[in-house]
Amino acid sequence: MSGLFSALGSFWAWITYALDPLCGPVGLFSLFGSSSLVACGDTGWGDEIALGVKVTLTLALSTLPLGLLIGFFVALAMQSKDRTLRLAAGIYTTIFRGLPELLTLFIVYYGAQILIQSGLSAIGFEERIEINAFFAGMLALSVVFSSYCSEVLLSAFKAIPNGQYEAGDALGLHRGRTMLLIIVPQLVRIALPGLGNLWMNLLKDTALVSIIGLSDILRQTGVAAKVSKEAFFFYLLACILFLVLAVVSSGGLRLIERWARRSEVRR
Amino acid sequence: MSFVERMIPPRPAPAAKVQSISAARIAGILMLIVWALLAAGLVYMMISNWDTDKFVRYGPRYLSGLWVTASLVSLSIVFGAALSLPIAFARMSGNRVANGLAYAYVYIFRGTPLLAQLYLIYYGLGSFRPQLEAVGLWWFFREAWYCGLLSMTLNTAAYQAEILRGAIQSVPKGQHEGAQSLGLPPMVTFRKIILPQALIVALRPYGNEIILMIKGSAVVAVVTVLDLMGQTRYAFSRTFDYQAYLWAAIFYLSIVEVLRHVWASIEARLTRHLKR
């Protein structure tokens, strides 16, 4: 069994290497950048920067589901009939839409550290701990993302007429099934453009985690810039990489939107 | 044949169902308790760790940081507005080249993080010191404050150009035609008819953009500008006191909330003729 897993692992490693758009066999850096500053391997910075792209994408992609989930429940709370629930959700969105993303990141990063540390010292365990920068970045970004996402989803909820809920009741569907089968499919279609904008913002906000030491695109290019003294080239490269990510994801979003609208009448 | 001799006397409506405590109410109260506990913890932390010495030392620094943030944001908004005018017009013009250039500018500055643009200007352009000294611009790119202002201006110009373009294009075509049929020259048409209607549409996005800039301005702290965030980081690095960040959060949150409400009242006042 373990042999199978290691075989699968090495196969996966080969796949990721072969399809790597920067440092793979047909990657940009290995085709055009060999024997230059961005060569892959020990002589250049290509592989380090490729790793940074991977970290940025992993962070953004792992923040997305968490942020969407929290945002969905906050939006549900904001349109509930109960006043206390609306108030609690309103406080959440007001705070995290009003704070700068950088400050939220610091508060989560150092706050979690202090919280865990004081918790551990309360049970008599004295040791300096460092919280994982990836985890802190993911938490902070998903909190910010969810508070914006809840606004987008709330306005989408308002665009769905009441008759849809009543139709669900008339069919004898349970509340949860009405939500899942009738409301959510329409909600996704209405909210998609807004969510696409939020995804672009998320992609840009991931650059902030370089400040707390996560080796994303900006951190890796910054290290390369400091060592090689070619600051302009490497920071320009960082901007271009972010731009490419934006172009690719706007193309992807267009495809998703077309897929979501496939049932609508063509005119 | 039988018939009803007496009408059924009027009866009160059935008693309203006693509102039992719903799941939503429980969840809401629980969450409010969590918020109240957090607020109480915050207040307790501030009172129990109160240090007059720190307050005297870092209080004025926070105020100066606040001033730096305010001046950076207001200057960049004003300069960005000036820069956004030609970009918006290029974006609306029929000229292919101007249109393409403006589109590229907007796309590039909206598609990359402000932090990366700041690094590119401060560290990237700063590495061309001899060339910059030759053209006499080194004094500008040497100062982190100027670089922060430049990157924020360029960034907000891209966003404001899109806001302006959207607002101008939202004015119906009939307004142009009406002005033409009255024989008004294009400049007067634009200034007296198109712009006032466009600016009302643009009011809300402009408010959002100012709030975004206030929040975005925090990143200039990374290149050693001592704005509110920079002073916070300075205070934290000296004292390792977590309160430093909490004070900054209170400052930022109150600025944004005050601005949001002031802007909403301005908007309500300016659009009162549109209310029905």
Describe this structure as you would to a colleague.
The complex is a heterodimer of chains A (267) and B (276). Chain A has 267 residues and is mostly helical. Chain A has ten helices and no strands. Chain A has a single domain (44-256), classed as MetI-like (MetI-like fold, Orthogonal Bundle). Chain A has helices spanning 2-18, 28-32, 46-78, 83-98, 101-122, 133-159, 162-170, 175-205, 217-228, 231-260. The termini of chain A are far apart. Chain B is 77% helix and 0% strand. Chain B has helices at residues 23-48, 52-92, 96-111, 114-124, 129-135, 138-142, 144-169, 173-181, 186-216, 228-239, 243-270. The longest helix of chain B has 41 residues, at 52-92. Classes of the chains: A mainly alpha (267), B mainly alpha (276). The interface between A and B is large, with 49 and 47 residues.
Annotation keywords:
heterodimer; A: 267 residues; mainly alpha; MetI-like fold; B: mainly alpha; 11 helices; 0% strand
* C-alpha termini separation of chain A: 56 Å
How does the overall form of chain A come out from the CA principal axes?
globular
> Poorly predicted ranges of chain B (pLDDT <50, ≥5 residues)?
none
Number of domains of chain B: 1
Please state the oligomeric state of the protein chains shown.
Answer: heterodimer
Radius of gyration of chain A, Cα only, in angstroms?
A: 23 Å
In CATH terms, what is the fold-level topology of chain B? MetI-like fold
Top CATH class of chain A: Mainly Alpha
Based on DSSP secondary structure assignment, what is the total number of beta strands of chain A? 0
CATH second-level architecture of chain A: Orthogonal Bundle
Instruction: Write the CATH homologous superfamily of chain A.
Output: MetI-like
Count up the helices of chain A: 10
Indicate the proportion of strand residues of chain B. Answer: under 5%
Q: Assign the CATH class of chain B.
A: Mainly Alpha
Described by strand count, sense and barrel closure, the largest sheet of chain B is: none
Family (chain A): Belongs to the binding-protein-dependent transport system permease family. HisMQ subfamily.
Main location (chain A): membrane
GO cellular component, one term (chain A): ATP-binding cassette (ABC) transporter complex
Subcellular location (chain A): Cell inner membrane; Cell membrane
